Every structure is written in structure tokens, then in C-alpha cells.
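Support request from a user on the community tier.

User writes: "When I paste my C-alpha cells into the form, the page sometimes reloads and wipes my input. The last time it worked, I copied everything first. Here is what I submitted, just in case something in the input itself triggers the reload:"
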């Protein structure tokens, strides 16, 4: 058997007899990651605490937006159809900002993967964060790797049942807290807890709490690495974003091979002369891996670049008196140089693809910032009557009906003036009012809402330019000078 095959792979081969010959399915091999400490484990804990603190605390932060507006800093308010993020307020028609944010996030992920491999997966992905938390609870209740393996193999007893009940109860508590916190981004936090205490939570809200809690329990407690290996699409195309200068978790084969058990009677010079390397084949790198891979087999789809194997291997190297970073974040270029006995190559931060991603990120971020800085507080939309398309009046004039919707994105009542451009002799009138004029004045709109008016536009037939004459509606605020324009058409008879 190839020496690169790990003991877990041998165990998988040995257990394959349980699978029928020619079967497309294999039994799931449960992974029991071993506890490890080190710089990457500490970094993962720090990021986990920071991100989870932000997740649970953000809905409770307040932001004063004025009278009548919600004061929750981050809120998706379905009742008023608004998205609030501190000083940013977005209306449904401004969904393009969300599109820009998603593009920005995707480009940032591409750049991070090009530079450092799957660091998102290893340090910041929600699946990784909650799985880490669930595994920490599991270790606190059932013990470390060896004890958990023995507990799984042991027959059911009161001790085993008690530990399993305690573990799953803790997992359910975390899941309910997670699902409840997610709902708070769509529901005013203090109001939600008042409704909970008075048992007045809507059924829809309870459904989504159950949904998010259930998925958290399933993915963080049960699926774990299976979601990363089989459901997540990211590992399938991450390789296309990496190159020989990407920092990825790497086994220093030029130094570690050939691996063999440590013989304390043999000096390191004797071991090297006999063809041995620094790797003592202890298996710690595999035992601490949350996805159960052996990094010594090279870059694999299951590697999430969490660096725990680096910490595990460094602890072993420290105990046996060998230099650290036998497993390390390194580049393929440097590995090739080291294997050939050449000087170590420097990490290249600036290269064509990183420059391209950086430029796209800067351009996208600049467009979003400029859009927010010059975000309009007035928008108008016009919908022309479909039936009838036009009306011929007794004096021969043609009249069209339009529904004007004014979006007043301020906290005050505003008044506007409406005019049209494209028909020099056209007159306007609000439906239900007598007479008509070149402009309609004093169209008022309530604060932070959409106000609709039905407006009739009348023009002499001889002024029309065919069956459809281009027509622009100009809406101007009486105070402040802000304007909005909407392109439409004025329909008339053929010829």
C-alpha cells in the first residue's frame, strides 16, 4: 500500500466489507477531531467570539432616525418595506445596492482565496463557526477524541444516555438561540421579547424560528463536515482561483518524507542517513482535522485551510526537538524551490489576478459609496392607463390618464410641482378637480411613504406625433429643489 495512505484510509478500506460489492453508497465514517492548541486555534476562537458577538448583539443596537421611524440599527422591516443599516435606509426599488454588496462580497472572497486559499471556510464561514461551537460543547460533555470514540463503541447505559441527552440539549439550546437571534433582524428586538412574554408571537415568526433552529442543529451538530464535502459548491471551483503563489496549508514533503515512527535510540543524523524525514507518522495532523483528511496527501477538496493541522504538528515537533512548520501555510512556488535546494521564494502579494480583483473591489465599493452619498430622497413612477388607452373629448382633444406614485424618502411632509415635457400645449389636472393647467402644484406626500395621484393629461390632436408621443413627467420639490423625471408616452389615434 502506498505510504501516503493514512491510517483512517486503511480503516475505511477495512470497513468496506460492510458495503455491498458494486454499491454506490458507503457508510459514513464519523469524525472525532482531537483537541489542539496553538496560534491558529487561538485565532479561530478569537474570530468565532467576535463574529458571534456581532451576530447576537447587532439587533439590540439602537439608532435614532427621528419620529415615527424604527430605532433598531440593523433591521429588515417588511411592514414598511425598508432595510435599515445604521444611517443607511434602502427602499425596495433600491435593491441594486444589495446586488452591489453581493458582488463586493464575491470579489472579496475571490481575492481572499487567491491569496490565502480557503481561509473563509476555515475561519469565518457560519458552518465552520457553529460546528466549532457544537464540537466544543461535545468535548466538554463527552470528553476528547479517545473518550468519545470509546463512548460511541460502548453499549447503551445510564452514563452514555445521560451524556447524549446533555449534549443534544445544549445543542438545541444553542440552535434556538441562533434561530431567535436571526428573527430579531426582521423583528424589533425589545418588541419581540415583549410578545414572547405575552404569548403573542405570530405563527409566521414561530415557523421561521423553528426553521432556523432546525437547520442550525442539523448542520452544526449532525452534518458538520458532510455539508462542506458534499453540499457546499465552493470546494468544487476554488482551485480555479488559486495559483502557485497562493498561501495554502501544505505538508513540507521535501523535509518530512520518508515518514516513519520515531526511534529514540536513533539520532536525527542517523535517521536522515537511513532515509527518514522529520515526519514521525504520529497521525496528529489527521486526528485534529475537522474534515478528517490527511494533509500529507497534498491539497484536497476537504481541506478548509483552518490551520489546526499546523498547530497539531508544531506541538509534536516541539516535543521531539525539531523545527516547527513541517505543515505550514506555504506556496507551491516556495515548495518547489525548497525541494530543489534553492533559496526560499518570497510571497508575491501583487500579481495580475490579485490586482484585477483589487481593482474590481475598489470600483464596486466606490460606486456603492457614491450612490449612498448622492442617494435621492425623491423618486417618481408613472403608470399609464391601459383601458382605455386614450379618450377623445368633444372639442377633439385627446386625453390620457396616468397614475403618479411619489416616493417621499424624507421624514417631513413635502409638496411638489408636476409638469410634462414633450407636448407643448398639454395641460394637466388631478382626477376629480376641475380645469387644467401647464403644471400641477401643491401635490403633497406624507413622510417616508409612497403617495399616489391619478393625473389626466390633455393635448390638442394636431400636436401629437403619431400614435405614441414621447412624454416626460417632471416632479420638483417646492422646497429643496430636488427633482425627479420619468419617461412615458402619450397615446393617440393613428395618423
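"...and here is what came back when it finally went through:"
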Amino acid at each position: 500500500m502506498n505510504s501516503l495512505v493514512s491510517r483512517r484510509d486503511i480503516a475505511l478500506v477495512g470497513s468496506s466489507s460492510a458495503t455491498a460489492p458494486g454499491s454506490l453508497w458507503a457508510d459514513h465514517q464519523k469524525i472525532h477531531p482531537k483537541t489542539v492548541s496553538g496560534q491558529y486555534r487561538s485565532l479561530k476562537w478569537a474570530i468565532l467570539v467576535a463574529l458571534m458577538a456581532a451576530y447576537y448583539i447587532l439587533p439590540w443596537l439602537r439608532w435614532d432616525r427621528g419620529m415615527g421611524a424604527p430605532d433598531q440599527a440593523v433591521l429588515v422591516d417588511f411592514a414598511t418595506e425598508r432595510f435599515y443599516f445604521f444611517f443607511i435606509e434602502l427602499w425596495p426599488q433600491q435593491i441594486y445596492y444589495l446586488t452591489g454588496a453581493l458582488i463586493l462580497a464575491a470579489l472579496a472572497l475571490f481575492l481572499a482565496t487567491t491569496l490565502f486559499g480557503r481561509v473563509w471556510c476555515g475561519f469565518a464561514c457560519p458552518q465552520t463557526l457553529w460546528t466549532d461551537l457544537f464540537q466544543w460543547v461535545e468535548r466538554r460533555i463527552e470528553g476528547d477524541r479517545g473518550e468519545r470514540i470509546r463512548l460511541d463503541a460502548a453499549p447503551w447505559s445510564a452514563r452514555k444516555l445521560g451524556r447524549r441527552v446533555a449534549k443534544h440539549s445544549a445543542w438545541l439550546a444553542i440552535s434556538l438561540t441562533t434561530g431567535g437571534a436571526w428573527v430579531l433582524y426582521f423583528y424589533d428586538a425589545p418588541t419581540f421579547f415583549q410578545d414572547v412574554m405575552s404569548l403573542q408571537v405570530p405563527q409566521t415568526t414561530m415557523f421561521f424560528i423553528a426553521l432556523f433552529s432546525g437547520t442550525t442543529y442539523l448542520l452544526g451538530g449532525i452534518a458538520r463536515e458532510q455539508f462542506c464535502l458534499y453540499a457546499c459548491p465552493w470546494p468544487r471551483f476554488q482551485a480555479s482561483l488559486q495559483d502557485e503563489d497562493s498561501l495554502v496549508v501544505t505538508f513540507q514533503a521535501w523535509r518530512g518524507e520518508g515518514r516513519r515512527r520515531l526511534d529514540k535510540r536513533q539520532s536525527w543524523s542517523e535517521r536522515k542517513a537511513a532515509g527518514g524525514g522529520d515526519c514521525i507518522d504520529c497521525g496528529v495532523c489527521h486526528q485534529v482535522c475537522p474534515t478528517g483528511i490527511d494533509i500529507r496527501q497534498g491539497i484536497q477538496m476537504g481541506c478548509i485551510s483552518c490551520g489546526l493541522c499546523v498547530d497539531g504538528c508544531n506541538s509534536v515537533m516541539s516535543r521531539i526537538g525539531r523545527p516547527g512548520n513541517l505543515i505550514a501555510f506555504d506556496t507551491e512556488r516556495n515548495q518547489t524551490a525548497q525541494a530543489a535546494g534553492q533559496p526560499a521564494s518570497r510571497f508575491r502579494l501583487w500579481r495580475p489576478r490579485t490586482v484585477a480583483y483589487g481593482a474590481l473591489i475598489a470600483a464596486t465599493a466606490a460606486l456603492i459609496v457614491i450612490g449612498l452619498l448622492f442617494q435621492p430622497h425623491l423618486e417618481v413612477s408613472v403608470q399609464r392607463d391601459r383601458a382605455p388607452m386614450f379618450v377623445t373629448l368633444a372639442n377633439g382633444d385627446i386625453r390620457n390618464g396616468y397614475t403618479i406614485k411619489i416616493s417621499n424618502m424624507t421624514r417631513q411632509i413635502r409638496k411638489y410641482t408636476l409638469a410634462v415635457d414633450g407636448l407643448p400645449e398639454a395641460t394637466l389636472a388631478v382626477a376629480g378637480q376641475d380645469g387644467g393647467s401647464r403644471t400641477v402644484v401643491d401635490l403633497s406626500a406624507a413622510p417616508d411613504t409612497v403617495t399616489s395621484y391619478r393625473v389626466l393629461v390633455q393635448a390638442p390632436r394636431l400636436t401629437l406625433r403619431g400614435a405614441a408621443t414621447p412624454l416626460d413627467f417632471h416632479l420638483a420639490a417646492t422646497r429643496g429643489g430636488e427633482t425627479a423625471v420619468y419617461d412615458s408616452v402619450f397615446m393617440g389615434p393613428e395618423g
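Agent notes: The reload is a front-end session timeout and is unrelated to the input. The first helix runs from residue 7 to 14. The radius of gyration is 33 Å. Escalated to web team.
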